[in-house]
Amino acid sequence: MAARYVSSQLIQNVQKGAKTVAVEFVDKTTTWTRPAGFPSTSAQSEFVQVVKDNINTLQSTTATVAMKESEHQSDKDKRMHYTAFELDNNRNVVRTSHFVQQK
Predict the structure, then answer these.
(1) Residue 98: pLDDT above 70?
(2) Which branch of life, at top level (predicted)?
(3) Separation of alpha carbons 56 and 73, rounded Å
(4) SS (H, E, C) the chain
(5) How many domains does the chain contain in total?
(6) CA-to-CA distance for 69 and 71, rounded, in angstroms?
(7) Cβ pair 86, 96 in contact under 8 A
(8) CB-based burial of residue 101 (10 Å sphere; 0-12 exposed, 13-18 middle, 19+ buried)?
């Protein structure tokens, strides 16, 4: 069973054009709790920039983007990417997305 979102911690709010979203990191799912001190502050900063760069790809109902997994590759997606939950205003997951750094 896939890990479902439980809670996350705010990194910062970002705005691009008319769209503003909260950028967070997941601290708890139904199957794990993130250890204290992770993700690193540099990983958090990089994720904020990745969200800014990809803000136009978010669902129209997305109010928060919460990093589930820091930058990695997977069998299903060979690109270096972040995995994140897109949450609506009620903190419901509207989509799980992969975000790639724009070069």
Answers:
(1) yes
(2) Eukaryota
(3) 23
(4) CCCCEEEEEEEEEEEECCEEEEEEEEEEECCCECCCCCCCHHHHHHHHHHHHHCHHHCCCCCCEEEEEEEEECCCCCCCCEEEEEEECCCCCEEEEEEECCCC
(5) 1
(6) 7
(7) yes
(8) middle
Tokens of 78: 């060979």
Cβ proximity of 39 and 84 under 8 Å: no
Tell the residue number behind the tokens 């199957």, with chain if given: 31
d(C-alpha 88, C-alpha 12), whole Å: 16
Measured over the CA atoms of residue 55, residue 59, residue 63 and residue 69, the dihedral's sign is negative
- Give the residue numbers spanning the domain of 88: 5-99
Structure tokens at 4: 């479902």
Predicted local distance difference test score (pLDDT) of residue 81: 93
